[in-house]
């Protein structure tokens, strides 16, 4: 899309190479980032900077305070990968429930008797707890319901009517919800309020065979 605009000069740098990012920053009018840290040093070096755009929803790799000081906006690709991430979360739940990695290894090495160990279990009827009900969390809820799962949501900013529209219920107490659920899937922005929301204490509350994505 950008290369089709002849008035733009585009430089692609290796997001793993901080020296390359810092070297390219002074000439940048805009920065498009994935996981590269766009910290205060990069922002300070980019004296011509007018906008930063983050591919995806989370932006914990961007120093928003440094941008605010210079009144530089930060854009996010809010809907770009919500379906892909939701499908991936369901994939991980299935991989865990079916113990797919162990079964794959076993049959590749000729151990067909692993089927007698009954290590897998069904998702149908089991309770899934979603932490966060934004764009991605909502997509996960819809797909989980299609698997016959019950879905609870812990999100203090969402009304029960929004949850009811996709067949989910509101969890009022996080500790109680974690102790009662069969699986937890996290769909939260990383900030001071959510960092380590699943800690040692809450892991200890979970059932022995509960899943965490």
Give me some keywords for this one:
alpha/beta, 213 residues, globular
Describe the structure.
By secondary structure, this protein is of the alpha/beta class. 35% of the residues lie in helices and 14% in strands. The strands form 2 sheets. The chain has a 5-stranded parallel β-sheet with strand order 6-5-4-7-8, sandwiched between helices. Strands 1-2-3 form a 3-stranded parallel β-sheet, with no helix packed on it. Strand 1 (30-33), helix 2 and strand 2 (51-54) form a beta-alpha-beta unit. The two termini are 34 Å apart. The mean pLDDT is 94.
Helix content: 25-40%
Spatial extent as radius of gyration: 22 Å
The number of distinct helices, counting runs of at least 4 residues, comes to 9
Question: Structural class, from secondary structure content?
Answer: alpha/beta
**Outline, from the CA principal axes?**
globular
Which ranges are low-confidence, i.e. pLDDT below 50, for 5 or more consecutive residues? Answer: none
- Please, what is the average pLDDT? 94
Instruction: Give the helices and strands as they follow along the chain.
Output: HEHEHEHHEHEHEHEHE
Largest sheet: 5 strands, parallel
Share of β-strand residues: 5-15%
- Could you give the count of β-strands? 8
Instruction: Trace the largest sheet across and list its strands.
Output: 6-5-4-7-8
Query: Gap between N and C termini, in Å?
Result: 34 Å
């Amino acid at each position: 899309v950008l290369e089709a605009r002849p008035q733009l000069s585009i430089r692609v740098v290796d997001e793993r190479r901080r020296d390359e990012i810092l070297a390219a920053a002074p000439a940048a009018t805009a920065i498009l980032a994935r996981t590269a840290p766009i910290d205060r040093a990069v922002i300070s070096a980019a004296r011509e900077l007018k906008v930063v755009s983050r591919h995806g929803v989370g932006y914990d790799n961007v120093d928003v305070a440094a941008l605010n000081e210079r009144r530089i906006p930060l854009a996010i690709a809010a809907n770009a990968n919500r379906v892909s991430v939701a499908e991936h979360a369901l994939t991980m739940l299935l991989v865990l429930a079916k113990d797919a990695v162990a079964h794959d290894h076993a049959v590749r090495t000729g151990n067909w008797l692993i089927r007698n160990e009954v290590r897998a279990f069904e998702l149908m009827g089991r309770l899934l707890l979603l932490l966060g009900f934004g764009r991605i969390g909502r997509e996960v809820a819809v797909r989980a319901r299609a698997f016959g799962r019950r879905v609870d949501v812990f999100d203090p900013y969402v009304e029960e009517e929004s949850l009811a529209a996709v067949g989910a219920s509101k969890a009022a107490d996080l500790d109680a919800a974690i102790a009662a659920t069969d699986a937890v899937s996290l769909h939260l922005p990383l900030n001071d309020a959510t960092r380590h929301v699943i800690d040692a204490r809450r892991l200890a509350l979970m059932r022995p065979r509960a899943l965490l994505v």
